[in-house]
Amino acid sequence: MRFFYTLFLLFGWFCPNSFGQNFSIAFQQDSWEDVLKRAVNEQKQVFLDCYTVWCGPCKALVKNVFTQDSVAMFFNRNFVCVKMDMEKEGKELAKKYQIQSFPTLLFIDPKTEEVNHRLVGAGDAVWLIEGGKKALEGRSSLKVLTKRFASGDRKPEFVRDYLNVLIDAGMREQRDSVMECWFRGLNDEELLTPLCWNCIERHIDAQTNPTDYCFVRFLELYERFYEIAERKMVDLRISVVIQNRIAKYTRWKIEQGNRFDEEGRRQLMDDLQKVDYEKVPGWLAQLSTAAYIGKQDYKGMLKHIKKILKKDVLKQGEEGYYLALFLPYLAASKERSVIEDAIEWMEEFCRKYPGNPMLENLKNNLMTAL
Q1: 50 near 85, Cβ under 8 Å?
Q2: What's the pLDDT band for 315 if we cut at 50, 70, 90?
Q3: Are the beta carbons of 330 and 298 closer than 8 angstroms?
Q4: Mean pLDDT calculated for residue range 171-176
């Protein structure tokens, strides 16, 4: 017995990684043609990891996800796995499969070389295994859901699942197109449901254009959505879209090298003036002030800021955010008379709201700029 115990210890000493070591996905080193042949012979799909050497999320997948036992066992058992640098040996495949984001993970039918399912990004082990299961089962794969939608299926639960699969696949334009097509077929009562709200909450985001049909439709019914979801969550969806678009103008800097879009700023103001929503006056105040950024008229900007705050256009709590947007432009202007005027005015404003650390910090930044 002692002999076997000693042998066990020696084995562990000379093979320190033999126990407790994680598996890893076994990526093949063969050519693409050989990978396809092997997958056909083994009656498996191909799992293709499309990466680049500079991609941080790609490295995170390799280090934190591909090495997990549950992931390695699932993928090694069910797929022929291969990884390719899309800027080197995978260039042709990058063109063929229209790879634009990294990492992109493809589940491919080796006989037709068509994509059954697709994932973009670096999720966790559960996310990756679920993606693999969808590819294997077929019913909830990207390929099958796309065919169902094209055939006219508009069941709410199905469309919700399809939208989620599209966004997981990094197919934003297709997701937006599907959502618009679906929304156009719904009357107001059909739209005012918890399921549709769930889709709005996930798929109307900072990248949504305020003129998109789905957002416009949502905005028309926002008060009725208060009955379905928390008011603050409905308001957040609206603010995320509008404030992100406004930021194009309020955060513009000449150093960016692009022209200030004055026409777009005016159009957005015109569009917002047609909207009946409590935050619109504050948004219009931001956009009207942003015009002076485009003209680099900092004296005019300070005069306009004073006018906005004197007219009480902004609601309580909005003043600090408004000033934080525009006072840094005055501080960076290097126009001494403008900065001195702004400091004097801010001292009066701080006396009006004593003990406000944000206002004090903005004033100090102006003083530092002198």
Answers
A1: no
A2: confident
A3: yes
A4: 96
Mean pLDDT to the nearest integer, 12-27 = 58
Tokens for 276?
């009946």
pLDDT on residue 22? 54
Q: Using only C-alpha atoms, what is the Rg of the chain?
A: 28
- Residue 234 dihedral angles phi and psi, to the nearest 5°: -65, -45
Which residues have CB under 8 Å from 81's CB, separation 6+?
Answer: 25, 26, 27, 28, 46, 47, 49, 75
DSSP H helical segments within the chain, as ranges? 2-14, 32-42, 56-60, 69-78, 91-96, 125-137, 142-150, 156-168, 172-184, 188-191, 194-203, 213-220, 222-225, 231-250, 262-273, 280-295, 298-310, 318-332, 336-352, 357-369
pLDDT tens profile 46-61:
999 999 999 999 999 9
Angstrom distance (rounded) from CA 125 to CA 142: 19
> Could you give the CA distance from residue 105 to residue 50 in angstroms, rounded to a whole number?
6
Confidence of residue 5 (pLDDT cuts 50, 70, 90): very low
3-state secondary structure of 348: helix
Nearest CA to 61 out of 128, 141, 134 is that of: 128
Provide long-range contacts, Cβ within 8 A and 24+ apart, for 145-153.
149/178
Spatial neighbors of 9 by CB under 8 A, at least 6 apart, are none
Residue 79 has a pLDDT of 98
Edge-to-edge strands of the sheet including 104-108?
A: 27-28, 79-85, 45-51, 104-108, 115-120
Q: Mind listing the pLDDT tens digit for each residue in 87-132?
A: 999 999 999 999 999 999 999 999 999 999 999 999 999 999 999 9
Q: What is the pLDDT of residue 21?
A: 45
- Single pTM value for the model: 0.86
Report d(CA 199, CA 156) in Å as an integer: 10
DSSP string, 2-37: HHHHHHHHHHHHH-TTSSS------EE-S-HHHHHH
By C-alpha distance, which of 224, 208, 226, 206 is closest to 216?
Answer: 208
Contact 75, 132 (CB under 8 A): yes
